[in-house]
Every structure is written in structure tokens, then in C-alpha cells.
Amino acid sequence: MLCLADNEADALTQLAAVLAVGSSVLWPEAELQRTLYRRLPTAVQAQISFSKDWQQDKVEFDAAIYHGDADQLRTLCEQIAQRSGAIVSVQGFAHGETNILLERLLIERSLSVNTAAAGGNASLMTIG
Predict the structure, then answer these.
(1) Are 12 and 36 in contact (CB under 8 A)?
(2) Source organism's superkingdom (predicted)?
(3) C-beta neighbour count of 29 within 10 angstroms
């Protein structure tokens, strides 16, 4: 999850939300994030990676959390929309907001089994 904040309180709020859903954090290579990173426990540091230029298509993330003003949020959404690949959801918040929607940080995977292919008998699907 790409996490963008310009103050420590918002960066920690984002970090807590991402870790709460069992994901990892992508921070921009910036002094604020590096300073905060050095103060975190080793187990938390292991869940954080940095990017000098997260706008590049080769930098992968599934969602973004942003704290800041609305004009910058619009610019961020435009930058993310221009990326190739999967659609990336962006949650935008004002400074100090803590109501990050955790359910939007989860990735749902589903499996569909076509039992009709086994003559409608699901037990035949386990033979093999």
C-alpha cells in the first residue's frame, strides 16, 4: 500500500491501518519517513519498503492512502490513473483524520468451481 503523508501523526495512522490488515507499506524516499522508520521496531520495519519514484509503472502497489489537501489529492489521483495496469484505489483524508476504511485495503480473491463439468456431482471434482 502506498502511504503518502507529510507529518508523523498521519504517517503513523496510515502505517497502523495497513499493518492491521496484514499488508505492507510503500513509503516515498523522504526525510520524514526515513526518520520515522529508524525509530520503529524491527518487526515493523520489515513491513516497510521505500521508493524514490513511486510514479513509475514498475513500482507496484494495490492501493494508496493520502493525507493532505484536496488539490494535491486530485493531482495524486490523476497520477495514479495514468499508471498502466490494474486500477488502484485511493483513499484521501484531511490532515489528522483517522477513519481509514480498512475494508478498502483488502484484496478479495475468489475461486469458482464448475460442478456441471463433473456432471453436477461435486464429489467427482476431488477424484484424481
Answers:
(1) yes
(2) Bacteria
(3) 11
